[in-house]
């Protein structure tokens, strides 16, 4: 295609003062003469011609095999078909490969940011129009090939931007153990359905704790594998550094089975370049219910944060010391920079997250959803006004940080690398470290509507990810394992699940699975309680 400036068809579409207007966005108001500005305008018209040409080219899509895997009865569920408030986004059935073995007979649901061809996606919002993918996410195809029956998409929080479960425009999700309490987010619907026994496995996404937090609140096992082990193709992204996909289930065995089914290198996702080839893992066959000789560190900073309630601390300490009885060495360890995790994640996520929300993310190879991009942008007064405060806050924060602190992102990522290196050094001595997944049990759900206070909307999520978010930046594998119940801080008569987070070295996912399997095999978490004074004794042991 010719892009000579004298043949540009876009010349009349570029305003005369466009160059000046564009440069003013970055604070440049002088430095280009009027004559130069006129020539840059011609060059700008030429690049508009190239852009229009690219937009006119056929898109490259890997269409779903709907002949092999037809979609049956796609529908928005009626009130009688809903569970735990509004856990379902769409209900349907895609029957898995009858010859598949790993997930044969398992029912699987998908977080509503995971593409299933022919199924409209909401992404937890009504600020933009729902779009309908024509492709299946890689993990959807792999789950079907492994024999799973996919039974629906489940509500996720607004733009996956909250760890509460009342922010979705499709409705509030209730905790399966106590109505009126949070199911956590942003994989809220799927975790509630798994925790409540409705489906076997939920496929979710985790950018700061969005698998592990709702798993902790809902009494599920939730696993964020090493960054890049599970492909992200066909999923709406928060940021390529933070993006993790993974399973939520009721047992460690189902987590391992699902991981074997969906993990492995994907030619369309450069996050997975370091992963083993798909089909080469044997997490399930290698599971062993033994921690003999394993060294486990109780991370002091993960317990001693001021937000960690005494009851959660005591339950998780009791669970951690159970590893001693099972043959492991359990010791207190310290990594002071862990306390900087929330700050590092917040800056990284606000800047990179804003770039993504504005359609400006770049620098990665992959197959992307042009349907989503078309539905999302450009932002308008109307669409922005419909966003939940958490997403508005991300954009406002990100724009301000990029304007006011031009070197901040680089320094943030340097410190993130320092944290990654320090954790890796710790994993040279210890196989795993443990800490509470969340600092408290599920809070009550807020009844919020547009026009209410933004701070009130954000407050229920504040502090929830103090132990989870940093491992999205560093990429370490992390699991939330249910280890007992603790009383609600708002109503002590209500007992809610507690999650223990197990974190391992990069690509040491098997160690987490083995330790969790050993603990689960020896304990029934539903019967865990503390005797009088036991929590204080455990604290003294540290």
TrEMBL record:
It comes from the Eukaryota. It holds the Pfam family Amidase. Residues 98-513 form the Amidase domain. GO terms for molecular function: catalytic activity. This is Amidase signature enzyme. It comes from Lentithecium fluviatile CBS 122367. The lineage of its organism: Eukaryota, Fungi, Dikarya, Ascomycota, Pezizomycotina.
């Amino acid at each position: 295609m010719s892009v000579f400036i004298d043949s540009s068809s876009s010349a009349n579409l570029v305003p005369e003062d466009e160059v000046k207007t564009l440069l003013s966005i970055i604070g440049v108001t002088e430095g280009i003469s009027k004559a130069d500005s006129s020539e840059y305008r011609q060059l700008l018209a030429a690049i508009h011609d190239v852009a229009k040409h690219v937009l006119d080219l056929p898109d490259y899509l890997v269409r779903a095999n709907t002949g092999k895997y037809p979609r049956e009865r796609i529908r928005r569920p009626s009130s009688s078909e809903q569970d735990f408030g509004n856990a379902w986004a769409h209900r349907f059935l895609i029957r898995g490969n009858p010859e598949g073995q790993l997930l044969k007979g398992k029912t699987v649901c998908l977080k509503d940011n995971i593409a299933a061809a022919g199924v409209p996606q909401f992404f937890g919002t009504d600020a933009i129009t729902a779009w309908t993918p024509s492709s299946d996410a890689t993990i959807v195809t792999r789950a079907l090939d492994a024999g799973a029956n996919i039974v629906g998409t489940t509500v996720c929080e607004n733009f996956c931007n909250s760890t509460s479960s009342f922010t979705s425009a499709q409705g509030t999700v209730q905790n399966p153990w106590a109505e009126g309490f949070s199911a956590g987010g942003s994989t809220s619907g799927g975790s509630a359905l798994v925790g409540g026994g409705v489906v076997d496995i939920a496929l979710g996404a985790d950018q700061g704790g969005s698998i592990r937090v709702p798993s902790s609140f809902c009494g599920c096992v939730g696993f964020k594998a090493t960054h890049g082990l599970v492909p992200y193709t066909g999923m709406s992204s928060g940021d390529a550094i933070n993006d993790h996909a993974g399973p939520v289930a009721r047992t460690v065995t189902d987590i391992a089975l699902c991981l074997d089914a969906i993990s492995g290198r994907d030619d369309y996702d450069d996050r997975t370049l370091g992963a083993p080839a798909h089909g080469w893992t044997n997490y399930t066959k290698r599971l062993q219910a033994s921690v003999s000789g394993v060294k486990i560190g109780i991370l002091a900073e993960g317990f001693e944060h001021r937000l960690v309630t005494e009851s959660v601390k005591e339950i998780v300490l009791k669970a951690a010391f159970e590893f001693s009885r099972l043959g492991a060495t359990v010791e207190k360890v310290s990594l002071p920079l862990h306390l900087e995790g929330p700050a590092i994640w917040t800056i990284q996520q606000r800047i990179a997250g804003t770039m993504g929300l504005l359609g400006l993310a770049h620098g990665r190879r992959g197959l992307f959803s042009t349907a989503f991009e078309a539905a999302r942008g450009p932002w308008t007064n109307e669409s922005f006004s419909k966003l939940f405060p958490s997403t508005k806050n991300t954009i406002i924060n990100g724009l301000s940080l990029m304007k006011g602190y031009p070197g901040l992102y680089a320094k943030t990522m340097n410190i993130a690398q320092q944290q990654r290196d320090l954790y890796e050094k710790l994993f040279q001595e210890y196989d795993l470290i443990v800490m509470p997944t969340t600092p408290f049990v599920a809070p009550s759900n807020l009844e919020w509507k547009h026009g209410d206070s933004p701070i009130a909307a954000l407050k229920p999520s504040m502090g929830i990810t103090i132990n989870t978010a940093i491992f999205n930046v560093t990429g370490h594998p992390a699991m939330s394992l249910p280890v007992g119940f603790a009383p609600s801080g708002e109503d002590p008569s209500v007992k809610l699940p507690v999650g223990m987070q197990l974190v391992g070295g990069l690509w040491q996912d098997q160690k987490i699975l083995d330790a969790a399997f050993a603990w689960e095999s020896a304990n029934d978490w539903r019967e865990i309680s503390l005797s009088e004074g036991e929590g204080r004794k455990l604290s003294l042991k540290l």
